[in-house]
Amino acid sequence: MASSQLVRMNQGQGETSYARNSSIQNAQQNRMKPLIEAAIVDLCSSVNSSTVFPRKMLIADLGCSSGPNALALVSIAVEAIHNHCLQFQQSPPEVCVLLNDLPENDFNAVVKSLVTLRQSNKPLVVTGVTPGSFYERLFTSGSLHLVCSSNSLQWLSKAPEHLTRNQIPAYDIDENARRERLPMVHEAYAQQFRKDFTLFLKLRAKELVSGGWMVVSIIGRPSYVIASRFFHLWEIVAQILSVMTSEGAIDKEKFDSFYIPLYGPSCQELREIIQEEGSFSIREMREHDPKTDYDNTFVTPSRFLNHLRAIFEPIIVEHFGEVMDEFVRTAERRWSVEGSMQDGCARNPRVMLVASLAKA
Hints:
The chain is an alpha/beta fold.
């Protein structure tokens, strides 16, 4: 079973690294820009209910990963502070930027990229990294002004205990058994997400200042897709691994005990959890099709496979060992039939959900 501490993207700068295969995520981060800018305007104009600019601002990105996207969200925030202060001819506040991810993240690359942000001629920027799970306390009480997170909150703290405790496979090789169990498996993942996201909201509410903001994005499911028929991008990974298992390349017991802690909620599901938890008011929620963020050349076997490997290779290797060469060969055989890979993607429609939240 995969623990949260093993969830990281492929490191380095190689062909299958996250750094080389995260252009879609960058496009999705850009869609968060107007909401981050609006949050900064509110923070700069309403601190202590006066017209006095804040003297300091702390901004955190949770689940920053590494590569060119690690600084994208905090850079948007710093630029927004700079532009707002220029507009009102005010001295900019001191800014502290903190980047968070799990300890296994490639923080060496992240720290090197932080140098450019510190050397900017905009507001004084102090930077730092905070390793750890965002399902635990990371910062002191009432210290943060803005929290950002992109493409991270779909990762759960762990696989659902109901499945792991009862040794119920998340993806059964037998198609009939898989179809019969899918509603139960989906419900187990949905409950784990509800528990985790509720905890995330409670923790961030403690760490944010009064009037603080969060802008987050998460991969989810379209509202028109029936929940019990939906799984995530990882189902394509599971399909490849199941073929490897049926061919004897992977032990069946190993396959049955493999759980990827990943869940994609609907917009309504996300809204209900936020409202029930009660720490934040929803200022805006957006939903868009991530396919609009890339052209058709992305959906080729080689590029799509590199994308899968950038995200899932570490967790696969941790559980099964060095099986990626066979994984690639199996995937290429499956996708040698024209349209098979595209059909697989079509059966897993996704949306990007973006939420702007103000601390209640």
